Amino acid sequence: MTYTAKTLYSYFGRHFFIGLGIVLALLALLMLTVEVIEHLRRASGREIPFSVILSLSVIKMPTTMQKLWPFVFLFGGMLSFSRLANSSELVVARAAGMSVWQILTPLIGIAALSGLFITTIYAPVAASLMSRYNLENQAYFGGKVSLISRASAGGLWMRESTPEGHVVIYAQRVGESGTFMEGVTFLIHGQENRFTTRIDAEIAILDDGQWAMRNVVLTRPDKLPETHKNFALNTTLSLDRIVNSLTPPESISFWKLPDFIELMENSGFTSLKHKMYWHSLLAQPLLLSAMSLLAAMFCIRMTHRRTGTGWMFLAAAGAGFFIFFVTDLVGAFGSAGKIPVVLAAWTPAGVTSMMAAATMFHLEDG
């Protein structure tokens, strides 16, 4: 690579970074404003300081921005390309013998490396902040409580709140997404966390608002243990509540997701949603590279002054939202098990890359 080529690559890359920075700052400011307004709405009627509202909005921002990274690279790329085109610098570079692919090389490289950074460093930090947000959100606003307090290779722990107190449930083995358990222990506590009953059962099945148990031993304070062949315990739990209480994938570090997925599958829970999220993170470098190619596809004709800037940005926005919609739709099918997770996660990025590259070849070769 000649010194001149290195200089041009550095110059185009710097312009790309500036465009990304401007779009990122604008989107972040917009989303922070939206988050603050939403938390203020939720805080109406509560005595919550504005500093807490602002803090909650800020720590949720990294996760909120996760889905907006493709738009950052689409509009950031378009902004940098349009500035270069309007100043005729792209025309000069083309006249000097540089092909479109040579111009795009540093931009695609930056997008791919940025995607790798987002996947391996940014996403784990965002997951850690999201875990903190969930705890603080529950403390101030009473959000959804996770029923599953801990899962490990040695068993599963759940906690159910009741009008009288709470019930701690431990199971050595779990099946059918948590509705069938073996080696189960129920620790029932009354008001003021006072222990009232321990129930040990060989099998417990969740059915119609109760746990149906077999081969049960009941233990109460100051009383002899009781044995029952069959026993029923009322519960407010349901299959949907148990499944929905699983730790959301956005709150789990990218590096810990594979172990968590394996653990959930071994415990009998579905892990499709977590697999889908993990593969979407893996596909991030390809998706961001594809959005950069898409930005170049819309801007390349500006060197020929055939397309108005306003219409170009409008068309790109439409294409970006269409890709966003398709990604969410295909992701929903993947999370529901209708199509393979790998196909659902990688198809939007792969198809966008191929379509943008094919269009660029057509535009470049005439």
Can you offer a commentary on this structure?
It is a single chain. With 366 residues, this protein is an alpha+beta fold. 60% of the residues lie in helices and 17% in strands. It is built from 11 helices and 7 strands. A 7-stranded antiparallel sheet has the order 1-2-3-4-5-6-7, covered by helices on one side. A hairpin with a 2-residue loop joins strand 1 (148-152) and strand 2 (155-161). Helix 9 packs antiparallel against helix 10 and helix 9 runs parallel beside helix 11.
Quick recap:
This protein has 366 residues and is of the alpha+beta class. It is built from eleven helices and seven strands. It is elongated, with a radius of gyration of 27 Å.
Descriptive tags:
11 helices, about 375 residues, about 60% helix
The helix-strand sequence is: HHHHHEEEEEEEHHHHHH
Largest β sheet strand count, sense and barrel closure: 7 strands, antiparallel
| Helix amount | 55-70%
Mean pLDDT: 82
Inertia-based shape: elongated
Unreliable parts: 303-307
Helical region count?
11
The chain-level structural class is: alpha+beta
In total, the number of strands is 7
Q: Strands of the biggest beta sheet: in what spatial order? A: 1-2-3-4-5-6-7
Question: Whole-Å distance between the termini?
Answer: 27 Å
What percentage of amino acids are in beta strands?
Answer: 15-25%
* CA-atom Rg in angstroms: 27 Å
